[in-house]
Amino acid sequence: MGVTRRNELRKHIASWLNTLGALILSVGSFTPTVALLLGIQSSATRDVIVIVIATSLLSGIAFHLLGRLVLSGYEE
Fold this sequence. Notes:
- The protein has about 80 residues and is an all-alpha fold.
- Helices cover about 80% and strands about 0% of the residues.
- The model has no long low-confidence stretch (mean pLDDT about 90).
- Helix 1 (about 5-40) runs antiparallel to helix 2 (about 45-70).
């Protein structure tokens, strides 16, 4: 496999991981936060919602950093 092909594969994998991190971040943290602010009733307690928000924030950041790690192997 040539250098250009490996670099393109790295860029696609990093982009996929970054998009996955953004998806987890948006669905897992913004949605429950808006629901709490609007007072929408939920069967989950506030403690569970806070844990879900914190977990999604950490997971989103982890996927973003993993994508950056994949790009660190980029060859010139």
